Amino acid sequence: MIKKIAVFLITTLFIITSSFAETITFSADSMTGQTGNSSSSSTVLDGHAYVKTSSMEISAERIELSGDDYNFITAEGYVTGKNLDSNMEFQCETMEYNRDTKIASLRGNVNLKDPENDVVATAQIIEYNQDTENAVLQIQVNLTQKNNICKGAYAVYQKKAQLLDISGNAEVRQDQDVFRAQQITLNLDTQDITLAGNVKGTVNDSGKKSDKKDKDAEQTPSETGNEQPQSEEKKE
Fold first, then answer.
1. How big is the chain by its Cα radius of gyration, in Å?
2. Better-predicted residue by pLDDT, 85 or 2
3. Between vectors from CA 117 to CA 60 and to CA 80, what angle results, nearest 5°?
4. CA–CA separation, 18 and 69 (whole Å)
5. What is the distance between the alpha carbons of residues 83 and 57, in angstroms, rounded to a whole number?
6. C-alpha angle with apex 85: 79 to 86, nearest 5 degrees?
7. Which of 126, 121, 66, 122 minimizes the C-alpha distance to 94?
8. Strand-pair partners of 166
9. pTM
10. Are 60 and 49 in contact (CB under 8 A)?
11. Predicted local confidence at residue 147, as pLDDT
């Protein structure tokens, strides 16, 4: 038997799913949903909605849990969250999360942070795989790390390997140096960079050599140790 329920001012509820033996904790200002043996069971949380699984924490204005054992989680309205395994943090407008595949699809002004590696990425679409810890970024991609500013239309960030592959008018800025190509691979640990396709760049001298020359020119002969002995006048 399926019952319709509406609960207001929920504090915290628990669901133990059968296939994963995973506890889902959630809270909201109000809830509507279905209970019972239904393959299409769903629960909608409205107002300050919050959901926590064993590996994911999500907050939003509205969150829906649906599917068998509530395997699908969708959220909208100032979505924020955190991967509890990798400590990756995110913000976006809408989110879809599949607890089976462990893939989260984030859309709309997405901001993804990896505090452990000082990485901040923004894009319009980011798909994050919890198992591989890889993030696929699409449209208006911007990623910063240390002194690197990386831009492009498409990118793959590999957290474990600390590699960034960026394509589509790719650009990487390192301080005053600029690298452009159709595809750029950057090792975020070693800072090694590989460019392919219509490669362009500007590398600025650090100025150390010119500074050294200027300093040498300013030194007096006595400071450099090259003072020349004065010639003596000839005595008649």
1. 29
2. 85
3. 0
4. 7
5. 7
6. 80
7. 126
8. 155, 184
9. 0.77
10. yes
11. 92
